[in-house]
Backbone:
């Protein structure tokens, strides 16, 4: 077959097991890879109409895929002032005051990315910021996306004057007198206030989503495992596809929530396969717990504040029945499980399935932040995928265990943090991602952090350096292992004849570059279905 395009580069990492010999040329046609070889080989492939793209000293790798992100849900979370990375309460107040000053009287103040470490170990309450809000309603998302602060005026607008009951482990936090402190834990509680926020039009949200997806592509991503989905998501994707092609592939997983049953599960199952040209509903997302920072994770023993003792599902057995329902139908599942008891219960539910049932689809556990040896070892031979986010470790915890996450867990459990290397060494498929907007999405800094166990570009002390991944393991987390986590190895994850022509072009070689340098290096472009998106590429383009 005469190729549409030939891509040349000094270094091409196929990540195809068993591949031998140097590769410096890739031929593509109809969105597929049709030939691999040397520069000399490529001379015999070209014909009239073949475009040649010579990237010179650049490196080509399989298209990078973020295994856990929230591009549509992120539109809600990232409204207003950005508080990401702020570690000082005075700076939080300053940014909220600046946001208030640009708004009219009575308008909602919104912000996101609030780190509880900014409160210096004291309880997170709205009282700490009320003085700069000018009596306006305010809704501030915490960095984990599972919690928010609502001002007294916002609580009044929402009609919240005391505790509420929820099907799952959500809470309107109240003081000893039963008065809300402003802290809302988990999605159902946050939604009580969020539903009163000013609404955007579908067109406005589409424009914002387009910017997010363009940002993903510019950062080197060719695909995203989207860990949420809704009718609005589908409408947004369709609207963007009417404008042109999505710049990245989107594999979507709608949520299955506590309190539902077989009828609701069947309705979710019926959405599998719905999609467009580059997006598809392909799995189901569940939650077994919340977050350690909020005290809503599920631990075998309570945290140092006496919290994190229960599952997100009031009846964990119902969760197990839900997982079995989808597994029996060959539908992949991905379960948010952060605490040791949460991860253990998900493994219980999956390992209780007959192997033939469990093998009908790929099942994953998302996050896995603290687990003992006995739980880690249960991954051996299970086929269960670990999906983890290295920058949750490097951005929000500290080697000296002075951060909120570590303090809540105590020293023993904090030393079991993000055990990426242990899971890889046991043969577990380990997919890596950002969980954007919980952490930034550019993949190169994440690949670097996975090797450094500290934030790239800093002199921070590494956090449990024994859990550092090798350069190849970190790259595989965004390529071959991400593909296996999606059950898509036959189509993607390596550069091989017959697979999709999804590629990422990099300035530096991620297998040999120093991680700190890699994090700061350029992404030259991507190809999705062979369609090029070149940014800073120093390339020569020729046509025969």
Residues:
């Amino acid at each position: 077959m005469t190729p549409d395009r030939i891509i040349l580069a000094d270094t091409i990492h196929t990540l195809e097991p068993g591949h031998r010999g140097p590769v410096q040329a890739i031929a593509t046609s109809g969105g597929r890879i049709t030939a691999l070889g040397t520069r000399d080989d490529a001379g015999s492939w070209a014909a009239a109409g073949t475009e040649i793209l010579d990237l010179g000293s650049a490196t080509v790798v399989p298209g990078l895929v973020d295994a856990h992100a929230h591009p549509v849900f992120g539109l809600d979370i990232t409204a207003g002032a950005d508080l990401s990375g702020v570690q000082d309460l005075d700076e939080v107040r300053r940014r909220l005051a600046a946001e208030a000053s640009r708004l009219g009287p009575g308008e909602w103040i919104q912000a996101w990315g609030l780190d509880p470490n900014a409160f210096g170990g004291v309880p997170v309450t709205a009282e700490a910021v009320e003085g700069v809000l000018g009596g306006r309603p305010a809704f501030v998302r915490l960095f984990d996306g599972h919690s928010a602060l609502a001002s007294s005026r916002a609580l009044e607008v929402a009609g919240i004057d005391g505790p509420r009951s929820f099907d799952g482990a959500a809470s309107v936090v109240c003081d000893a007198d039963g008065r809300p402190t402003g802290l809302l834990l988990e999605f159902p509680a946050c939604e009580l206030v969020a539903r009163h926020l000013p609404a955007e039009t579908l067109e406005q949200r589409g424009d914002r989503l387009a910017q997010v997806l363009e940002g993903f592509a510019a950062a080197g991503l060719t695909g995203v495992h989207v860990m949420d989905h809704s009718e609005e998501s589908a409408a947004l994707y369709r609207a963007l596809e009417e404008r042109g092609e999505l710049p990245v592939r989107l594999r979507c997983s709608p949520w299955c929530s506590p309190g539902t049953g077989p009828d609701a599960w069947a309705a979710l199952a019926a959405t599998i396969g719905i999609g467009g040209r580059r997006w598809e509903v392909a799995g189901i997302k569940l939650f077994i717990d919340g977050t350690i920072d909020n005290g809503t994770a599920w631990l075998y023993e309570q945290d140092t504040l006496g919290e994190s003792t229960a599952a997100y599902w009031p009846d964990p057995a119902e969760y197990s029945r839900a997982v079995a329902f989808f597994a029996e139908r060959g539908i992949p599942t991905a379960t948010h499980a952060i605490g040791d008891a949460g991860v253990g219960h998900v493994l219980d539910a999956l390992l209780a399935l007959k192997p033939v049932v469990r093998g009908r689809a790929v099942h994953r556990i998302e996050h896995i932040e603290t687990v003992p040896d006995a739980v880690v070892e249960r991954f051996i031979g299970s086929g269960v995928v670990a999906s983890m986010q290295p920058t949750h470790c490097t951005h929000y915890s500290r080697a000296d265990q002075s951060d909120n996450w570590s303090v809540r867990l105590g020293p023993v459990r904090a030393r079991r943090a993000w055990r990426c290397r242990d899971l890889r060494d046991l043969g577990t498929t380990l997919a890596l991602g950002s969980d954007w907007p919980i952490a930034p999405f550019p993949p190169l800094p994440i690949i670097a952090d996975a090797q450094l166990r500290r934030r790239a570009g800093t002199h921070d002390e590494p956090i449990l350096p024994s859990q550092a991944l090798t350069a190849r393991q970190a790259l595989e987390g965004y390529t071959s292992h991400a593909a296996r986590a999606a059950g898509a190895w036959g189509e993607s994850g390596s550069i091989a004849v017959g697979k999709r022509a999804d590629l990422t072009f990099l300035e530096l070689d991620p297998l040999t570059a120093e991680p700190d340098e890699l994090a700061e290096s350029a992404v030259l472009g991507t190809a999705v279905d062979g369609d090029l998106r070149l940014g800073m590429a120093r390339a020569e383009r020729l046509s025969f």
